[in-house]
Amino acid sequence: MRRFTDAAHLVFESGTPAVRRHASWVLALFAAAQGDRPSAHRWVMAPGLQDGRPLLPRFPVDVTDEVQLARIALAMGDSDLAGQTLATVRRRSQLNPGVKTIAAVEAQVSGLVEGRIEDLARSVALFEESPRRLALGSALEDYGRCLTRTHREGGVAVLGRALELYLVLGADWDARRVRGRLADLGVRRRIVLARESGSGIPLLTGAETQVARLVSDGITNREIADRLFLSPHTVNSHLRHIYSKLAINSRAELARIVAEQAGGTPAPARRP
Question: pTM of the predicted model, to two decimals?
């Protein structure tokens, strides 16, 4: 991502106007993902790109991008940008009747901008019938976050479902954000892993499953790297992803989870 954003900065400085708009949106998304909504808003409204109109309708984009634009606008109290974004998604929905993803985005943006929780619930229902699984996670997160204000237990359940979906999809960054939302509510959610014969731990990739099993055998990171023909850095990276996906913090906890799935006793954990 650092290399990507470095390239976006260069393009923004020297590209054609149309390409600069793409670069500006990339930088806005990256800032928003880091939680820096003021910078995201500045990139959306970058000088020289705007004529009093929002960034996104100026070129073809993914239909779910307006959700991010609405979030940025609302976070900065920019009611004009939020209203323009809502008008854009409503117009697109009118022009494309019957397209579930487009209708779902319109419902989600409407729910965010107008504070209509019933629209957020509708966006979840529509994304359920759409192939856009990451977008479904986003809709669940918005719905769960708003639901906690009036129905804490219901909101926690919805956020828990968003977390599970993000983990299955490998969206670690989003999963960490939802864990933070749950932690703010006093909830520590660890995903209960189903035992599946021959498939390893379901939430992990094949390489992560191999590393997890070797860790559970008490093998050090360097020994794992030698055995799997990987660099120690790669093994460390796999282990960080494993900890994040399973909501654990130690090799001992990982060994216990693997042993529970295998029906055995974990080997003593060794230091990396």
Answer: 0.68
